[in-house]
Design a protein that fits this description.
Layout lengths: L3 H12 L5 E3 L2 E2 H7 L4 E5 L4 H11 L6 E5 L5 E5 L7 E5 L6 H17 L4 E6 L23 H12 L3 E5 L14 E4 L2 H11 L6 E5 L5 H11 L2 E11 L2 E8 L6 E9 L3 H12 L4 E9 L5 H7 L4 E5 L5 H6 L3 E4 L2 H12 L14
Parallel strand pairs: 3-6, 6-7, 7-8, 8-9, 10-11, 10-13, 13-14, 14-15, 15-16
Antiparallel strand pairs: 1-2, 4-5, 11-12
């Protein structure tokens, strides 16, 4: 058991937004575990590794849950412990078998809610269907296009979710699709930290958005690094297929860092990388929050001119890293763990918008 001095120091560290080990047998994580009663964290099937890192950070055990499928492929979930009166967090990312994982999340939320959980928070690092957030005027028959992100928001609310924690929504207005609180965390602080620690020439870099929609994201990062930014205007013939690209900005003799919220088939960022090299960039990096990497994505990255393609672990990346040596991962589990801790304790999470909790 820690002494009074250790306990007082833990309180001091927590007040000053620090979490670190400070004596051989005592850590703030274990201290947190004792000071966080009535909390349960469960993991869905999509990303158990991230959920485990979150609970390790919090100093608590992962809740027991069994998810299986019947022979007709219906999803069945059994919560293995009491959640009556508990503050429940369910970690499930929009990756892999997205539809199955979304259904599993909805069932887990409902199971906890009808088992008398006091509050159920869905921790969704990568929000599914986020790209279907509007009726795109560039698509034919727009009057009959769905707004599926709104549908998913409705489904989560009807299932019984009281709160959503996610990261880098494809469009921030998706928060307005919900009638419940949504905390949209940003990968930007972790991205800035990675750039400063891993790109020696970062002071001579230029931050590039691969499309006009990401201009706000890159200007924020460029301002905090005190460097210039550029953007690439692209026109699409249809989804996942880019027709033309025009570079706006000067990248000659500079390190170009492409920044985007997600990459799926990677056609856009690979075309953008070629465009940047043609324009005189010395090196090209890509930093993406959600590395989906479906279809031909990995082979495209392997054949592209990137120094590195950096993604967060909002989606499992072990298989992708084995297939492509250029892929590197930024761990954001500490940001979700700190968001859970602050939410549970009724504290503000705005500190996480501009800082990485160490």
């Amino acid at each position: 058991m820690p002494g009074r001095a250790d306990t007082n120091r833990a309180r001091f560290l927590l007040r000053n937004k620090l979490t670190t080990k400070f004596s051989p047998n005592f850590s703030v994580g274990k201290y947190l575990g004792r000071k966080m009663p009535n909390i349960k964290v469960f993991s869905g099937s999509s990303h158990p590794d991230l959920a485990q890192k979150v609970v390790d950070r919090l100093g608590i055990e992962l809740g027991r849950v069994v998810a299986k499928k019947f022979s007709n492929l219906e999803t069945n979930v059994e919560i293995g412990e009491s959640v009556r009166g508990e503050d429940v967090y369910i970690v499930q990312s929009g990756s892999g078998e997205i539809n199955d994982n979304l259904m599993e999340l909805l069932i887990m939320i409902n199971a906890c809610k009808i088992a008398s959980a006091s509050r159920v928070t869905a921790v969704i690092p990568c929000f599914p269907y986020a790209r279907q957030d509007k009726k795109d005027k560039g698509v034919q028959h727009t009057s009959r296009a769905p707004i599926s992100a709104k549908l998913v928001a409705n489904m989560l609310s009807v299932a019984g979710a009281d709160h959503i924690i996610t990261m880098d929504l494809h469009a921030s207005q998706i928060q307005g699709f919900f009638d419940i609180p949504v905390d949209n965390l940003y990968a930007e602080p972790a991205v800035l930290k990675w750039i400063k620690e891993n790109i020696p020439e970062w002071r001579n870099c230029i931050i590039v958005s691969p499309d006009a929609g990401g201009a706000k994201r890159v200007t924020s990062i460029a301002d905090r690094l005190n460097v210039d930014f550029a953007l690439i205007h692209k026109e699409r013939k249809k989804a996942n297929e880019v027709a033309a690209m025009v570079l706006v900005g000067d990248v000659k003799d500079r390190v170009a860092i492409l920044v985007d919220d997600m990459a799926d088939t990677c056609g856009t960022i690979c075309h953008a990388a070629d465009k940047l090299l043609e324009a005189g960039a010395t090196k090209v990096y890509a930093i993406l929050t959600h590395g989906i990497f479906s279809g031909p994505a990995i082979s495209r990255i392997n054949n592209a001119c990137f120094e590195a393609v950096v993604v967060t672990n909002s989606i499992p990346q072990d298989r992708h890293m084995k297939e492509c040596s250029k892929i590197q991962v930024i761990d954001v589990s500490m940001m979700f763990a700190e968001a859970v801790r602050r939410t549970h304790n009724g504290e503000s999470v705005s500190y996480l918008f501009s800082n990485v909790p160490y």
